[in-house]
Amino acid sequence: xxxxxxxxxxxxxxxxxxxxxxxxxADRVQPADAGVAFQGDFALAMRVNxxxxxxxxxxxxxxxxxxxxxxxxxxxxxxxxxxxxxxxEQTLRVETRANRCPLKSLDFxxxxxxxxxxxxxxxxxxxxxSVDTRDPAIRVHAFLTENTYFLYLDTSGEALFKRxxxxxxxxxxxxxxxxxGILKLAGWQPGLPLLDPFCGAGTFLQEAAEQxxxxxxxxxxxxxxxxxxxxxxxxxxxxxxxxxxxxQPPAPLPIWGYDLKGDALDxxxxxxxxxxxxxxxxxxxxxxxxxxxxxxxxxxxxxPPYGVRMGEQAALAELYPRLGDTLKQRYAGWTAYxxxxxxxLPKLIRLKTSRRTPLYNGALECRLFExxxxxxxxx
Length: 379
Fold this sequence. Notes:
Number of helices: 10
Shape: elongated
CATH superfamily of the largest domain: Vaccinia Virus protein VP39
CATH topology of the largest domain: Rossmann fold
Largest sheet: 7 strands, mixed
Helix content: 25-40%
Order of helices and strands: EHEEHEHEHEEHEHHEHEEHEHEE
Structural class: alpha/beta
């Protein structure tokens, strides 16, 4: 049976996610703001949860229509067959997001949808489910446009970027699905030499190593659909077994991480070790300005430091021109991708930027700058 789904993602990665979903077998893939709508069966939704490296959540559409008031939304939610999808003993959480919604309070909308669900159970069973905002068994999502509502059940549970072991987070950790999307935008493929010269906690390194070894990102975790009543789980063991059989044992890979700070490398090493990847990625404590390329050519993908305070900005204004000189003198033949919220980076680094891709790290507007490094002047 064909169902309607919406996979959310960091803003700017919608097209990347759309291609990934199509590759997993999704039908009628339609990128939207901060996500992609698609169609398929329950088996597809489970496979997307297990295999998608870019999605944040996979939401199952259970209702849509037009509205004018909060009462319209209550009525629409109240008539849905909630007891078909959950038990009254299960805890729940309702979240509401909107774009150009005319109603005054989204908190009140959330309350009315929660009341509708609870009243549905009270009328049928004499009981009402409890709310748990931290670790609910069932998550309900509402999205409102100017006059249309969409109601979803969350098939993911915890966000999909919360995968694998992460012991150390570093100062400004990237979510794993954002790192995966950046690697796709950079055109990185397993086997292509990859260097992160400001590796921090090692998110790019770990993501690339897991892809190289064929590891499905969702193996070893649980999902929201496992708690849904009426969800067909018959194909789930086979989907997991197929993904597990594809994974390769750890092996040395052409993936390198540099960082000037020893504590940053300690964090990266702890994360790689927890993921069983300590022997797959090569780490080195070195100032990037004094570094040498680990291969004749490849990709640099990094989230360099950017200043918030005045002193930090002054230090970076000194660092970036010297970094540009280092790239020209030593990294000819490499292509560099800098993911940053510092829009002055291309001007300061004094190298020609061949592509600028708008992305968001949460609510923070960023850019992915592409620089093809050639010997000598590249200004």
